[in-house]
Design brief:
single chain, alpha+beta, four-stranded mixed beta sheet, 44% strand, globular
């Protein structure tokens, strides 16, 4: 298990699953890196942001080749799951 942002953790290679539990701004900033490191058909779980940030996160994810899969919400916090096309 690696900790840190995708740009600071020394990530190399492609993965079947990425979990990014960071704030909205970091998720948006690093979306291109997530796309680069996720295998086609892989899943990414994005969390650590508020429900009212979902539209921005989803728009950026879709622009980077991710397809919406599922969402969860609890106490105004959200998580979104996408699959890489």
């Amino acid at each position: 298990m690696l900790k840190g942002t995708i740009n600071t953790a020394g990530i190399d290679g492609k993965f079947d699953l990425i979990l990014a539990n960071i704030n909205k701004n970091v998720l948006l900033e690093e979306m291109d890196a997530y796309a680069d490191h996720l295998k086609t058909g892989g899943m990414i779980i994005l969390s650590g942001f508020y429900v009212n940030d979902e539209a921005d996160i989803e728009a950026k994810a879709v622009a980077h080749g991710f397809q919406y899969f599922k969402r969860s919400e609890r106490n105004d916090w959200s998580s979104l799951i996408f699959e890489k096309n």
